[in-house]
Write a structure and sequence with these properties.
Elements lengths: L2 H18 L23 E3 L6 E10 L5 E8 L10 E2 L9 E6 L5 E6 L14 E8 L2 E2 L3 E2 L9 E6 L5 E5 L9 E5 L1 E2 L2 E2 L3 E2 L8 E7 L5 E8 L4 E10 L2 E2 L3 E2 L10 E6 L5 E6 L2 E6 H6 L3
C-alpha cells in the first residue's frame, strides 16, 4: 500500500471517528483552542477529566551545573480561565524538570529530570525519565526508570493504552543524534528498549507523541546540517510504520515546533511555538496531509 493511500485511509478513519464519537462532539468538557494562551517550556499534559493540567516552564534559577532550570507546574481551569500555576509536589526546583506526560489511565505521570540518580547526590548533564504514581489525591515520590535510562539523554516519554513506552535517546547504536525507541510493559516491568528504525534517520528525532492505540505517531525532526526542524507524522498498520510525512500545515522555517500532544478527547492537537501553546483541531491537522 502506498504512503499516499495509507494517509488517505487514516485521514478518513479519524474524520469518521470524530464525527460519530461523543468525545469529538461540541458537548465535551474541553477548553476551546482560543483559550490556550499559555507560556510553556517543553511540556503540556491534560488529565482525562480536564481538571489537572501540568506544564513545564523555565525559571530564573540555575541548577548546580549553571544551566537555566525549569520546573513542572499544576494548573486548573474553572470553566472560564486558568488558575495561576503552582509548583508540582514532585518537581525539584534545584534541578531541571520538564515535559510532564500522563499515562492513559492518569495513574502515573512521567517526566524528564536532570536530578541525581539513586545513590548519587550530584545533578546530571543529561536528562533521564522518571515517573510518579497516584496515591489517592497525592503523588508518590519520583521513581527512576532504571531499565530505560542509561548514561546519556533519555527523554520525551509517551505511552500507549497498554503501557508501551516510546521515548528518544542518544544511546549507542542509533541512526542519528537522537532516535526513537520502544519498550513494552510486561508483568509490571519495561522490557529492553528496541530502536524503531523505520522512524529514525541520520538527523535527530526528538519530541514525540504516540496515539494511545498506537495508530500514529507525531514527532519532530531536527536537521543539524541547516538548523531547521519539522513536525512529522507516521501511521502504524500491520506492525509497520509508514514513511514519516511533514505536517506542512504547522511547519514554519526558522522556528522550532516542539512537544506535540493531543487532548484527552482526541479533538485538539497542541504543540509549542516560541514558548507558547499552539492549538489546532486534529481533523484540520490531518486534512492537511496529502
Amino acid at each position: 500500500m502506498s504512503h499516499k493511500i495509507l494517509s488517505i485511509h487514516y485521514l478518513s478513519f479519524f474524520i469518521i471517528v470524530c464525527l460519530i464519537s461523543p468525545a469529538c462532539s461540541s458537548g465535551t468538557p474541553g477548553i476551546a483552542c482560543s483559550e490556550w494562551n499559555l507560556k510553556i517550556t517543553n511540556g503540556l499534559t491534560i488529565d482525562q477529566s480536564w481538571n489537572e493540567i501540568y506544564i513545564s516552564r523555565s525559571t530564573s534559577q540555575k541548577d548546580p551545573n549553571g544551566r537555566n532550570a525549569s520546573d513542572i507546574y499544576l494548573l486548573t481551569h474553572d470553566g472560564t480561565s486558568f488558575s495561576s500555576p503552582t509548583l508540582a509536589p514532585f518537581s525539584d526546583p534545584r534541578f531541571i524538570d520538564y515535559h510532564p506526560v500522563f499515562s492513559v489511565d492518569n495513574q502515573q505521570l512521567f517526566f524528564i529530570s536532570w536530578r541525581p540518580i539513586p545513590g548519587s547526590d550530584e545533578g546530571l548533564a543529561y536528562g533521564n525519565i522518571w515517573y510518579v504514581e497516584r496515591q489517592g489525591e497525592q503523588w508518590s515520590q519520583p521513581i527512576y526508570l532504571d531499565i530505560i535510562n542509561q548514561a546519556g539523554h533519555d527523554s520525551y516519554p509517551s505511552l500507549t493504552r497498554d503501557g508501551t513506552l516510546y521515548f528518544n535517546s542518544d544511546r549507542p547504536g542509533g541512526e542519528g543524534g537522537m532516535d526513537i525507541y520502544r519498550s513494552k510493559l510486561e508483568n509490571g516491568r519495561y522490557t529492553t528498549p528496541i530502536n524503531v528504525a523505520s522512524l529514525n534517520s541520520a538527523d535527530s528525532e526528538n519530541d514525540l507523541f504516540i496515539d494511545p492505540d498506537e495508530r500514529f505517531m507525531i514527532f519532530n525532526r531536527y536537521y543539524p546540517s541547516n538548523g531547521q526542524m519539522d513536525m512529522l507524522i507516521s501511521f502504524h498498520e500491520s506492525d509497520k510504520w509508514s514513511a514519516p510525512q511533514k505536517l506542512d500545515l504547522i511547519n514554519q522555517p526558522d522556528v522550532y515546533e516542539l512537544t506535540p500532544t493531543i487532548s484527552p478527547d482526541g479533538k485538539l492537537f497542541f504543540y509549542e511555538l516560541n514558548g507558547k501553546v499552539q492549538c489546532i483541531p486534529i481533523k484540520d491537522l490531518l486534512a492537511g496531509i496529502r
